[in-house]
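testing teh design pipeline on a random one, pls ignore if ur not involved
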């Protein structure tokens, strides 16, 4: 039996526990075992109809998975109130992430699926990273910058800049950053997704990709040179493409991933296409890491309204990437 996937606890006041239990109920008869590192009492209070078994080690998850949701118990500092984050529990949230990463690094977990976190609560407790991605790079000793890919059945998108303002994103944009992001993406498409010759669509920044300079110079001065370098590398890159047309159904058939210039240029089309099935994948890490493409949803926590579709997709994608890496390293 393959090593199980490790799921982090995430924000205990959000929907992470609910979607974990629903995902287990949906996948319990399959061949992808997983466990959560979190407070078993907290999970038991969310849905008492779902059987939970406490485990002591990741390798025990497979033996219990079909009959109960495996939980490696790690108690919260204070009982969680759904919908109301408490910074007193931030250390437990962070410890869950750190321990799951450790399991993946040592090979006792096939990968890590992170549950949504409430960043403001972690910041109040002294967390100094912009989010999961940057901290995971530090924890894993990644040799290069982490790259965020969002993926669903019909689209993969990769933003060159992530959690910065639009003004900052434009100021930071460079040929070098585009080339580095695209190279990492092409490498991951080959190694993790089994695409032998990846095709990259590189988005323009301005309307109509600048309209030959009439609507901005960045497309010709920054993006076009990056595409030329990528093509010299042997990467099938095309662009800069007009952002308003490159995400149509017809256009999406012509590439395997879209390299986008800023956060919303990437996430708006993907979330419009498949809000409930989108997956966040971190590229360029030595471990497999995926996550649901949504937040903590505090407004519906505890109301049994959360859709586990994105978590289920993240679990499947993590398992597929782990299998692809295992085949490559065999």
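output:
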């Amino acid at each position: 039996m393959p090593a199980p996937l490790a799921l982090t606890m995430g924000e205990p006041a959000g929907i992470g526990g609910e979607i974990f239990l629903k995902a287990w109920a949906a996948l319990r008869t399959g061949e992808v075992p997983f466990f959560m590192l979190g407070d078993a009492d907290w999970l038991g209070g969310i849905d008492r109809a779902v059987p939970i078994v406490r485990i002591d080690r990741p390798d025990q998850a497979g033996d219990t998975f079909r009959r109960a949701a495996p939980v490696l118990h790690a108690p919260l500092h204070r009982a969680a109130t759904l919908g109301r984050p408490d910074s007193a529990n931030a250390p437990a949230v962070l410890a869950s992430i750190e321990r799951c990463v450790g399991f993946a690094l040592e090979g006792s977990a096939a990968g890590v699926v992170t549950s949504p976190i409430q960043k403001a609560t972690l910041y109040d407790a002294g967390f100094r990273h912009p989010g999961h991605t940057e901290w995971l790079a530090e924890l894993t000793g990644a040799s290069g910058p982490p790259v965020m890919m969002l993926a669903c059945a019909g689209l993969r998108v990769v933003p060159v800049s992530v959690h910065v303002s639009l003004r900052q994103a434009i100021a930071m944009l460079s040929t070098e950053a585009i080339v580095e992001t695209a190279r990492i993406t092409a490498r991951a498409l080959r190694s993790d997704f089994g695409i032998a010759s990846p095709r990259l669509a590189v988005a323009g920044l301005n309307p109509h990709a600048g309209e030959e300079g009439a609507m901005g110079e960045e497309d010709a001065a920054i993006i076009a040179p990056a595409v030329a370098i990528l093509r010299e590398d042997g990467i099938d890159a095309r662009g800069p493409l007009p952002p308003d047309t490159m995400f149509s159904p017809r256009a999406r058939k012509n590439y395997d991933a879209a390299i986008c210039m800023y956060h919303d240029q990437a996430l708006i089309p993907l979330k419009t296409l498949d809000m409930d099935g989108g997956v966040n994948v971190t590229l360029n890490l030595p471990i497999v890491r995926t996550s649901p493409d949504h937040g903590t949803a505090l407004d519906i926590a505890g109301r049994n309204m959360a859709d586990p579709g994105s978590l289920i997709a993240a679990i499947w994608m993590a398992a597929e990437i782990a299998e692809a890496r295992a085949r490559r390293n065999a």
